[in-house]
Amino acid sequence: MRADRVALLAVLLSGYPAIRLSAQDSQYGIRGLGTPGRWESVRARSTGGAFGPFDPLSPLMEAQLADVGHLTGGAMTAASYRDAETGGSTTALRETRFPLLQLAGPIGTRFALGGGFTTYLDRSWDVTLRDSVVLRGVNQPYTDELTSNGSVADLRLAAASRLSPRLALGAAVHVLSGSTRETAERRFDDTTYSLTRQTAEVRYDGLGVSASALLGSRRG
């Protein structure tokens, strides 16, 4: 009887009309959260990020801090070079970021501390839209430009301890902080209409915790 109910529920769900969920907006869209940062150090990124969870200077986990043998620090800059082609015109996009700064070191013989900041979400974008509206009986084309400049940073303080040769535990406290300056501007093709602009500054704040464990399959 239970199997019959499960089968009936599956048929009803498959036949139910699809509903668009607003939470599924793209991270690159205006209503999205933003573009996630890259939380790997230079060493981890040079290997394609595969060793990021085991790298003490990559804040993907906390337990790997237990293997830091001495005081270690690292920072990274990232530059992107892109060309966007729209409507037959090409625009060069250049951007430089400072997405990661980490410092870690041992405390005693079994504990280690680490801290720093990374880019949690990047919310910098520029979107241009073309449309028209009827004003005083005349169709007036206009251009809307929506811009956002800013990001959210993850300030992190982590601690770890190696309890045995095979087991290491770690935990961290995260403070999310950032702001964006957002501008909406409308320009009519008919210059007799004034340009309209609205500017706002949005702040982001949050607090979180995380924990992780490393378990070796055998003793080294």
Question: Can you give a write-up of this model?
Answer:
The protein has one domain (23-215). The N and C termini lie far apart (53 Å). A hairpin with a 7-residue loop joins strand 7 and strand 8 (196-215). The chain has two helices and eight strands, in the order αβαβββββββ. Strands 1, 2, 3, 4, 5, 6, 7 and 8 form an eight-stranded antiparallel beta sheet that branches. Helices cover 9% and strands 57% of the residues. Residues 6-28 have low confidence and may be disordered. It is elongated, with a radius of gyration of 25 Å. It is mainly β and 220 residues long.
Brief rundown of the structure:
The protein has helices spanning 2-15, 42-46, and strands at residues 35-36, 72-86, 89-107, 111-122, 125-135, 138-162, 167-188, 196-215. It has 220 residues and is mainly β.
